[in-house]
Automatic annotation (TrEMBL):
The lineage of its organism: Eukaryota, Fungi, Dikarya, Ascomycota, Pezizomycotina. It comes from Venturia inaequalis (Apple scab fungus). Keywords: Membrane, Transmembrane, Transmembrane helix. This is Uncharacterized protein. The chain crosses the membrane at residues 33-56.
Length: 72
């Protein structure tokens, strides 16, 4: 369940509009930050997977790709 949904429900329960806006904004920001971190982690894992495949191949002009992706 997204944090923004929880924040909206809590704000409705307290009937505080100012608190509701602040909590909803912070929760949406946190949701966005979490999703961004997950996407970046997936990109990093994919790049390292490709780097492993390329380094296993390790033939001539493919070698620079492995160096570029894994950094070794």
């Amino acid at each position: 369940m997204p944090l923004s949904t929880i924040a909206e429900a809590q704000a409705r329960a307290t009937n505080s509009i100012k608190h509701a806006r602040r909590a909803t904004f912070l929760a949406r920001f946190a949701d966005t930050l979490i999703i961004t971190c997950i996407v970046l982690l997936m990109i990093l894992l994919f790049a390292s997977f490709i780097g492993c495949i390329v380094s296993i191949m390790d033939q001539g002009h493919y070698k620079w790709m492995g160096i570029l992706l894994i950094g070794h």
